[in-house]
C-alpha cells in the first residue's frame, strides 16, 4: 500500500466500528500517524440495523462515511481494505490491496454471527449484523408477502407469513416488536387480499427470560409489551436446526416458517495470524490485559467485541456492545499517547451507562444504575439517546423526521425491494 | 395468477411509473377491476435518480411503495411481476408468476437505455435509468477514487478520476453539475492524499447545444453554469465506442476514462407479443392514436414513453418525459370510463407545463411558456417543483432536510459503498 511513512510512529487500526472510530478520534492531532482500515467505507450504527430490516430507515441514516468522520485530522489515513492476515513477526498486515507495516496494531474487528458450527442452520437462516444483511432481510420479508399472495396452499402461505426470531437479546426483541407493528399497521392495508391476521411472530429464547443482561423487571415488562403486540415469546426453547422450512427444537415442537432470523449469538471476528488458540477464549475473542494489549504480543492491542478483558466484575469479559467498545477505544487512545511519552498507562475501567431496548410504539425498557423504568417515558429516553449517539447532524434530522412520521402515521415508508433477496450475496459479499 | 374476477371489467396496467400510477389513480373507486403489474414494488421518481448516484439522496426518498399509493382503492390489485409476453389473441398476459387475462390492457412500460446496438459500448458504460443502476454508479464513482489512491501510474490515476457523461439532456447536465460540486466540495476533504484538482468531468453532446429541447437561452446559460463549475462541455462530438478505458469519437480525439455514463438515448421498453414491426416506430415506441389506443389492436392502449402519438405539433411523438406520461395516464383514465359508459372519448391534448434543469448550487434554467429565466430564482423554482411532485409527505420532508443540509454544508452524506459496483448485477437484475 503506497502510504508514505511520516516521522511519527505508525498506528494501524483495523475496523471502523464503535471501538475503532472512538480510538481514531482520540488520536487526532497527536504526533502519530494513524491508518484506519475497513472493508466498508462507512461506519455502521449497529443498534438501529433492525429498523433498516423493517423498512423504517434507509442505510444512509445509520451509516456514516468514515472519511468524513476523520476529514479534519491531517495525521489520519483511511483505506478501504479487507485484511487477510497479520504477520506478527514482521509487523506486517496483508490485505486485498497490498500490505502495510505497523509500529502499533489495534484490532477492532468486532464480531460476527455465531451459528455454533451448525452449517444447515447457517445456510438457511438470516443474520442481521451488517447493512447488506439487513437490506437482504428487508427484501425477504417483503418478498414473502408477495409470495404468499401467489399460493393457494394454506400451509405454505402461513409459513411465508410466519417469522421466527431466535435470540431474546435487544436485537431479537426490537426486531420482533417492529415486525409486530408492521403486522398491525401496514400489512392489512398493503395486502388487503391476504388474511394477515394469520401472520405470526415468534421470539425464541433458550434461557428463562428475554433481555437477560438487563434487570428482571425489564425482562418481564418487555415480555408483557411483546405479548401485548401479539408476539409469541418462547422461553426455555432451543432451536436445534432449520432447513429453510422447518425449525426444530429440543422437543417435538417445530416451527413452520420461511424466515428464521438468527440473533442468538456472536463471536469475535478473528484475523489469520492473530487467531492462535493460546491467544483466544471460547467465542473467538482475544485475551487482553487491562490495557487492552493482546496477551503475549508486543505492540498489538484489541478493543471492542473482539477483546476479552477478564476482570473480577466481568469474569467472561465485557458485554459485546457499543459502550464497552467506545470506552475501550477512548482509553486505549490515551494510553497509546502515554506509551509513546513513556508515562504509566491507565487500566481500563468500564463505566456502565445503563442499557435499554425498545419494543414498539411508546414501549421501551431502560435500566440505569439506580433507576429502572419502562413504558412511554423509557421510550422517549430510548429515542433521545439513539438520536444523540448517531453521528452527524443530518443523520439525526433524517432519522427524526422518519420517526415522527412513523409515529403519526403508523407507517414505515422504506418498504422497498431494491435488490431481491439473495442469501449467497449477503453471505459472501460482506 | 390467482386474482378473482369481479363483476366489473378488468383493466390490467403494466408498469408503475408516472403514466401507470397516474392512470391507476384515475380509475380509483370506479366500477372497474384494476390490476397493476410492475417488476418492482415501488414507483421511482426518475428525475432525481442522479442525486442517488451522487450520494445526495437515498433510494427511499425517490421511491414510493406502489401498494401504499393505492392502498385506499378497494378495486385495485398490485402484483410484483415481470411480464414476459402478451398473447393478444387470447387477451392473456404471461408473467414470471403466472398468467392473467384482461379485458383492457394498458402498456405503461416506459423506456430503457438505448445503446443503438453498440454492444461493446453497452458492456462497458453505465446507464442510469433505475435505482439499482444509480446505486451501482454511486459505488463505481466512490470505488474509482479509492482505486486512484492505490496506483502510482499517473495515467491510470487520471483515468480513474475522469468522468465522461454522454448526452446533454437534463440527465447528463444534472449529473455533470452534481459531480462538479462533489469535486469542489467533497473530494479535497475526503481524499487529502489525491490531487483531486486533476479530476475532470466531461459532458459530451452530439448536437450543437445542450438541453436541446429547451430554449436557446436555457442552453447557453446551462453551458455557462457548467463551465463555471469546471465541467468541460464538448458539443458536436459523438462518442463512437468505449472499451472500458478509451472512449473514441468521430475524430482522432479520445477520452481516457474509467467511467462513461451513457445518457444519450432511450428507447421504448417493448414486450414480446406487442412488438411487431407494423405496430412500432423507430425508437421502439408503439404507434397510438389520439386516444392512446395502440393502432390496430382492439382494447390495448399505451401511455407514457412507450407510446408514440404523432400530431401536427409533435411529428415524432411527445417528449419522453414525466409530464406527457402523467397527462396521458389521466386522460386515458377518463377515456376508459367513457368507453365503458359508451360515451365519446376525449382526444389527448398535451399541455406543456414547461421544462427545467438544475446545474448545481443556485443554478438552474427554467422555460415556462411565456417566461424563461435562469439562475438563483430558477433554482428555487426547480427545488420547489421537484419537492412538490415527489409522492408522500415523508419523502418530501426527508429530501428537504437533505437539500437544506447539503446547501448549508456543501456536503452529501450518502457517499456509501453499500454494495460494490457490479456491472453484470446492474444489467441483468433490473
From TrEMBL, chains A, B:
It catalyses: a quinone + NADH + H(+) = a quinol + NAD(+). The keyword Transmembrane applies. Keywords: FAD, Flavoprotein, Membrane, NAD, Oxidoreductase, Transit peptide, Transmembrane, Transmembrane helix. Residues 10-329 form the FAD/NAD(P)-binding domain. Its EC number is 1.6.5.9. Pfam families: NDH2_C (PF22366), Pyr_redox_2 (PF07992). One of its GO terms (molecular function) is oxidoreductase activity. The chain crosses the membrane at residues 376-393. Gene3D superfamilies: 3.50.50.100. Residues 353-408 form the External alternative NADH-ubiquinone oxidoreductase-like C-terminal domain. SUPFAM superfamilies: FAD/NAD(P)-binding domain. It is an enzyme of class 1 (oxidoreductase). Belongs to the NADH dehydrogenase family. PANTHER family: EXTERNAL NADH-UBIQUINONE OXIDOREDUCTASE 1, MITOCHONDRIAL-RELATED, NADH DEHYDROGENASE. This is NADH:ubiquinone reductase (non-electrogenic). It comes from Sediminicola arcticus.
Amino acid at each position: 500500500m503506497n502510504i508514505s511513512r511520516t516521522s511519527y510512529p505508525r498506528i494501524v487500526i483495523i475496523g471502523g466500528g464503535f471501538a475503532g472510530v472512538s480510538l481514531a478520534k482520540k488520536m487526532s492531532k497527536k504526533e502519530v500517524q494513524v491508518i484506519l482500515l475497513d472493508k466498508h467505507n462507512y461506519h455502521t450504527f449497529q443498534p438501529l440495523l433492525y429498523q433498516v430490516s423493517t423498512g423504517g430507515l434507509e442505510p444512509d441514516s445509520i451509516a456514516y462515511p468514515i472519511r468524513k468522520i476523520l476529514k479534519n485530522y491531517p495525521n489520519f489515513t483511511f483505506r478501504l481494505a479487507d485484511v487477510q492476515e497479520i504477520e506478527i513477526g514482521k509487523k506486517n498486515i496483508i490485505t486485498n490491496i497490498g500490505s502495510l507495516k505497523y509500529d502499533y496494531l489495534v484490532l477492532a474487528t468486532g464480531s460476527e454471527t455465531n451459528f455454533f458450527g451448525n452449517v444447515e442452520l447457517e445456510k438457511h437462516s438470516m443474520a442481521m449484523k451488517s447493512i447488506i444483511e439487513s437490506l437482504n432481510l428487508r427484501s425477504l420479508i417483503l418478498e414473502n408477502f408477495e409470495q404468499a399472495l401467489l399460493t393457494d396452499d394454506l400451509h405454505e402461505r402461513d409459513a411465508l407469513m410466519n417469522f421466527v426470531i431466535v435470540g431474546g437479546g435487544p436485537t431479537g426483541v426490537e426486531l420482533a416488536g417492529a415486525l409486530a407493528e408492521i403486522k398491525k399497521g401496514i400489512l392489512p392495508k398493503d395486502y388487503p387480499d391476504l388474511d394477515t391476521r394469520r401472520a405470526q411472530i415468534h421470539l425464541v429464547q433458550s434461557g428463562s427470560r428475554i433481555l437477560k443482561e438487563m434487570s428482571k423487571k425489564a425482562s418481564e415488562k418487555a415480555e408483557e409489551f411483546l405479548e401485548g403486540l401479539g408476539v409469541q415469546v418462547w422461553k426455555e426453547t432451543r432451536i436445534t436446526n432449520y432447513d429453510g422450512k422447518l425449525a426444530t427444537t429440543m422437543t417435538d415442537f417445530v416451527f413452520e416458517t420461511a424466515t428464521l432470523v438468527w440473533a442468538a449469538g456472536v463471536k469475535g471476528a478473528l484475523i489469520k495470524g492473530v487467531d492462535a488458540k493460546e491467544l483466544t477464549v471460547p467465542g473467538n475473542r482475544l485475551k487482553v490485559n487491562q490495557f487492552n494489549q493482546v496477551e503475549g504480543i508486543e505492540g498489538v492491542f484489541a478493543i471492542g467485541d473482539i477483546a476479552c478483558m477478564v476482570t473480577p466484575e466481568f469474569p467472561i469479559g465485557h458485554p459485546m456492545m457499543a459502550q464497552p467498545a467506545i470506552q475501550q477505544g477512548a482509553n486505549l487512545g490515551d494510553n497509546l499517547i502515554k506509551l509513546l511519552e513513556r508515562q504509566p498507562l491507565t487500566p481500563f475501567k468500564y463505566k456502565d451507562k445503563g442499557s435499554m431496548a425498545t419494543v414498539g410504539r411508546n414501549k421501551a425498557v431502560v435500566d440505569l444504575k439506580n433507576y429502572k423504568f419502562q413504558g412511554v417515558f423509557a421510550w422517549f429516553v430510548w429515542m433521545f439517546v439513539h438520536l444523540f449517539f448517531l453521528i452527524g447532524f443530518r443523520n439525526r434530522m433524517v432519522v427524526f423526521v422518519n420517526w415522527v412520521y412513523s409515529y403519526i402515521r403508523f407507517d414505515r415508508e422504506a418498504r422497498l425491494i431494491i435488490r431481491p433477496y439473495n442469501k449467497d450475496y449477503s453471505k459472501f459479499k460482506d
